[in-house]
Amino acid sequence: MTPDPRRDEAEFLASYDPRDYDPVAVTVDVVALTIRDGALHVLLVRRGFAPYAGMWALPGGFVQAGGPLRGADAEDLPDAAVRELAEETGLSAKGGALGRVHLEQLGTYGSPGRDPRMRVISVAHLAFAPELPDPQAGGDAADAAWVPVDALGLTDSGEQRPGTTRRLAFDHARILADGLERARGKLEYTPLATAFCGGEFTIPELRSVYEAVWGEELHAGNFHRKVLSVPGFVESTGATSDRGGRRGGPRPRLYRAGDARLLHPALLRPSREEEIR
Amino acid sequence: MTPDPRRDEAEFLASYDPRDYDPVAVTVDVVALTIRDGALHVLLVRRGFAPYAGMWALPGGFVQAGGPLRGADAEDLPDAAVRELAEETGLSAKGGALGRVHLEQLGTYGSPGRDPRMRVISVAHLAFAPELPDPQAGGDAADAAWVPVDALGLTDSGEQRPGTTRRLAFDHARILADGLERARGKLEYTPLATAFCGGEFTIPELRSVYEAVWGEELHAGNFHRKVLSVPGFVESTGATSDRGGRRGGPRPRLYRAGDARLLHPALLRPSREEEIR
DNA sequence: TTATGTTCTTCTCATATCGAGATGAACTCA
DNA sequence: TGAGTTCATCTCGATATGAGAAGAACATAA
C-alpha cells in the first residue's frame, strides 16, 4: 500500500497539497569500489561546508523528484546513482569509462537524526569499477579521490577506529562497511570480480582482485583450477599476455568474462569458517 | 553526501524551506511470508479506494517523518515496518505473536510513475513469520488475508500471468517476486527456515518449510543428515513429538533453533544448477 | 651471458561433501 | 490384524576442496 487510499484519484489530485506533509528528502549515495595497485579503493569526496565540513563522504545527492504533478524531470534511482557517479568522477556515464561499471542497490538508510538538518532517506548503491582515472573535484565537493579502504580503519560494526585521520561524515562508515561486506559476499557466488578487471585479464589478475577484496591470500593452483572449472566464469581469448609477472614467471593467458550470472559451485572464502557464529 | 552543503548549518536551518523542493513521499511495504498447510502464504490487504481499488496490495504505509525540525515523532524504517505489520494483522508488536518474526530490509522501489498520484519511494521489507492467526481488516484495508503465493501466478520477471484473479496493485508483483527470490536464497545459507517454525519443531517439519519455499521435494534422508551435520543449525530438546506423521511413521524428535547465524556448508537447492545462466 | 629467484600452470593425494538408494523400526489408518 | 507411510540411519559412487609438489617460462641482477 502507498498513500492515503480513502479518496478516489480525481479527488485526491484536486485536494492534495504536498505541503501538508512533513518534509522528507531522498538522496542516493554510492559506494564505488575499484582496485588500484593491488589494494581496494573507494571513491570519496571531501566536504567543503557544514555539516561535517572537512570530512570525507560518499558521493551522492538528491534524487530529482519530478513526478506526474511537476513535469517529466523525474529520475529513477539507478539513474540518479549513475549521474552522481559521473558528476563526481568527471567521467561520461554512457559508453564512456563508466560503461562497464556494475551498479546495484545496497540498502536504504533512514534513521532519524542521521542528517542534522532534516529527515533524509538515503538509498545507497554499490558500484564495481575497473581502474579509473583520478576524479576531478567537481560539483559540490572540495576534493575527490580514490582512497584505500584500509586507510579508513573500519570495524565490522560500521565504525572507524580511534586515531583514523580520514573521518567519514554522517553514517557513511556504516554504509561503507555494509558495502564492503556485500562485495565480499558477491565475489563468492557471482562472477562480478571480472567487473574490476578490464575487458581482458589473466587468472592471476583475477586472483589479485579476490585477494584485495577478501584481504587474504589464496592458493594460486587451486584458484586457477576453480576458475576454469566453473562453467561460464571466464572464457579464453586464445591470446597470451605480452609480459610475464612483475618479478618473473611465464606469460599468463588472457581471458574475458563468461556468460554465467552465478558461480556454481560457489567460490567460498577460506576465512568464512571462523566467522560463522 | 547528502543535502546542499553550500551553507553552514545555522544558515541552512534559518533559510531552509521544505516547500521549495519537489515533494517525495516515503513509505514502507512489507512482504510477510508464512507457511500454512504446507504452502507458502503472503499477507495481503485489499484496497477499498482508488487507485487500484479492489486489487490486492502488500501491507504498508507512510513513514512518520518528524525529524529535528518537527518534533520527536520520527520513526526508523524497521519500526515503521513492524508498526504496519502490527496494524494490518491486529497482532501486538512486542512480546506478542510478532515477537519471533524475522524482519529485514528487502529493497527500495522508486521508479517515477509507480504511484499515479505522486513520487513515492517505497522501502520494502521482508518478514518470516511462524503460523499466525487470520488478520483483521483494520486501518485502511477493505480486507486482509494470508494468500497462497501460488494463487498469484507470479512469473520470474515480476509480473502476474494473464487470467490470475487476484491482481496486485502498483509494482507489488515485482516486489513480491523479489521477496520470494530473497527468501529462497536466504534459506540456503542462513538458518532462517526456523523462523517459520514455532519454538520447537521436528526435522520433517523443517524440511516441509524448505519444500514450500523452494517449491520442490527434498530427499528426506539427505536433508536429515545435512541439518544435523551443520554446526549450530538446530539443537536437540531431548523430547519427542507426541504423534507420528500424518499417515503413519515413528514419532520424530523435537529440536529448536541453534545459535548459528550462517549455515556452513550451505544447504543449496537442487534446482539451482539449471538456473545459472 | 649466466645465475637466481619468481610465477604460471598442471598434477597428485587425502579429505569432505553430496546425490541416490536401501533398510529396519515405529506408527496410523482401514 | 494387515497394509502402507514415515523417521532415522547407513552405504556407495561421484564430485569438490585444501595442501603440497613440480616443470617450464620469464625477469632481474651479477
From TrEMBL, chains A, B:
Enumerate the SUPFAM superfamilies for this protein.
Nudix, Winged helix' DNA-binding domain
Keyword flag Hydrolase = yes
Whether Hydrolase counts among this entry's keywords is yes
A Pfam family annotated for this UniProt entry: WHD_NrtR
Give the region (Disordered) as residue ranges.
Answer: 235-255
Question: For the Nudix hydrolase domain, which residue ranges apply?
Answer: 25-168
User: Domain of life, per the record?
Assistant: Bacteria
Q: Which CDD domains match?
A: NUDIX_NadM_like
**Keywords in UniProt for this one?**
Hydrolase
The residue stretches assigned to a coiled coil in this entry are none
Instruction: State the protein's name.
Output: NUDIX domain-containing protein
Protein species of origin: Actinomadura chokoriensis
